[in-house]
Write a structure and sequence with these properties.
It is built from eleven helices and 17 strands. By secondary structure, the protein is of the alpha/beta class. Helix 8 links the parallel strand 13 (228-231) and strand 14 (251-254). The longest helix is centred in the middle third of the chain and has 14 residues, at 143-156.
Amino acid sequence: MKSLVYLGARQLAVEERDVPEPKPDEAILRVEAVGICGSELEGYLGHSSIRKPPLVMGHEFCGSIVHLGSHVNQFTIGSKVIVNPLVSCGTCDRCRIGKGNICRNRQIVGIHRPGAFAEFVAVPAANLYSVPAAMDSNLASLAEPLAVCIHAVKLGLKPYENLMIYGAGPIGLLTLQAALTMGADRVLVIDRQPDRLAFAKQLGADTSTPEQSEEACARLFGARGVDTIIDCVGVQSTREDAIRNVNPGGTIVAVGLGQDQSLLSMNHVVRQEIAIVGSYTYSDEDFEQAVRLLSQGKVTGEGWSSTCGLEEAIGVFADLADGKAKFSKYIINLSEGAR
């Protein structure tokens, strides 16, 4: 089978690899559509400590079942499925209190085991979600990043509150859509790229550049201000900007992993009782809700996402890294089932 393999910083190659055999509790999928995640872009650049080359990345995907392990009886060959790539142990103290997303022994498909940047992939059957055969595979592949966003929104936003989002990349745009379905009042999205801000505006947000964020926040929210900010970028400037713009007693939900360490105004955080909450992946409930929202047509990738083939993806990664990509999101299509 053809696989897109990460070989080191800015090094990708299409290689032939063996089609995997399923373990008793696994299924083998023919991959139809797999999204390129911002975290994989960080891996491509050599900035991810958990992605070790050589590695087949890819954790946002949809496909059809072609082979089932001997212990799997809840699915049938040919079924169309979305995959939750987060594999929790189910037995550690975190899993026992319902926090499998921070399982002490967690694995993620495309990081700790081969991912979906390949024609076929092996996944635990327990992590599969059936979807209608007619569902667009490119849309279905957004379930994983949408679940990330639903989890982040739940950690901070209350219904009918204002919201500020840093970043109009895929996570920022999906966070915007998730927040609007969950009752956000007015949403301000901050980004530097005009094209991405245009996508956010089309989806119902007010927008601003970082340089104008304080002015835009005051103009849009007035004395009411903003109690929740979700940072989908995660660098020094967005973290510090969020601290400056959030209301006293407000919450900053940190999703972006753009920079490991930042020097922040922590005395201001203490004196204003600002909560900074980390948000990592999602719960099973978040993932199920993401699948449902996509199935109901309440979240879209139209206008801000595009597709490419496996070989083309090498150039797409380079364009994304160099800031030359036209779209916020690129989804790799690997079979005729993607539509």
